Amino acid sequence: MKKKKNKLSKSLTWNELATEYNKSHKGGILPARTLPMDTVFGWAEKQTDKFKVTKEGTICKILK
User: Fold this and answer.
1) Which of 21, 25, 15 is nearest to 50 (CA)?
2) Could you tell me the pTM of the whole model?
3) Considering only Cβ atoms within 10 Å of each terminal Cβ, which end of the chain, N or C, has fewer?
């Protein structure tokens, strides 16, 4: 079966990624802007249903 190719947003800025992180971590977790960038990047990298890390290392949101 052929894998469906998802449409992607433009590359997210760190600010946009931080906003996405904060939406997913309500209550008790430090806001993204106070965490190391590697922590937020690593989180996004694991959210394979929401984000795609490109070969160039940028993060794009998967569009439904």
Assistant:
1) 21
2) 0.80
3) N
